[in-house]
Specification:
Protein name: Lipoprotein
Largest sheet: 5 strands, antiparallel
Number of strands: 9
Strand content: 25-35%
Helix content: 25-40%
Radius of gyration: 30 Å
Organism: Dinghuibacter silviterrae
Keywords: Signal
Distance between the termini: 76 Å
Number of domains: 1
Number of helices: 5
Length: about 170
């Protein structure tokens, strides 16, 4: 019995020595800051359209272009918004950015925008903006805009809505 008591006491002292001598080390140096993550709202850069004609019927021609984009996902199609803009010159030579949906039909699928118009918009600058569903909800709650209303905004009004909602874009 005395051997068991001595052995238990020795184990307890050894455990106390091991656990009390361990301490958390000091913090190491802070690492370099990584690159910024993607913004919630994606805005493509401006690029020039190169539409081609497609004869629908004799005397009926439409102009089409496909735009490949990994930013249009199933989630975006389900609850987000994609806006498209063109930059055109007015009679005075001023460049005006306008919602492309006014001038052309835009059909979307995962990874793709399909542009179709009765007019040839080749050589016109084009860009698109992708807004995830969570940001659409934030915009709706802060501005009162519905998803349908959001899809029709001009670039200036979109910028104002994003600012009001506290949402940044790239």
């Amino acid at each position: 019995m005395k051997k068991l008591l001595n052995a238990s006491l020795a184990v307890a002292v050894l455990a106390l020595a091991i656990f009390s001598s361990c301490s958390k080390g000091s913090n190491g140096a802070t690492g370099a800051t990584g690159p910024a993550g993607p913004d919630s709202v994606f805005s493509s850069g401006w690029f020039t359209l190169a539409m081609h004609d497609s004869v629908v019927a004799v005397g009926d021609t439409i102009f089409v272009e496909g735009v490949t984009t990994p930013n249009v996902t199933q989630g975006i199609l389900d609850s987000g918004v994609v806006l498209a803009y063109i930059a055109v010159d007015d009679a005075n030579g001023n460049t005006i950015e306008e919602n492309a949906a006014v001038d052309m039909e835009i059909t979307m699928s995962v990874g793709y925008l399909y542009l179709q118009s009765s007019s040839d918009y080749s050589q016109v600058s084009f860009r698109y903006v992708v807004i995830p569903g969570k940001d659409v909800a934030t915009i709706a709650s802060t501005t009162g805009l519905t998803r349908s209303e959001l899809q029709k905004l001009s670039p200036d009004k979109l910028s104002a809505a994003l600012k009001t909602a506290g949402i940044s874009s790239n």
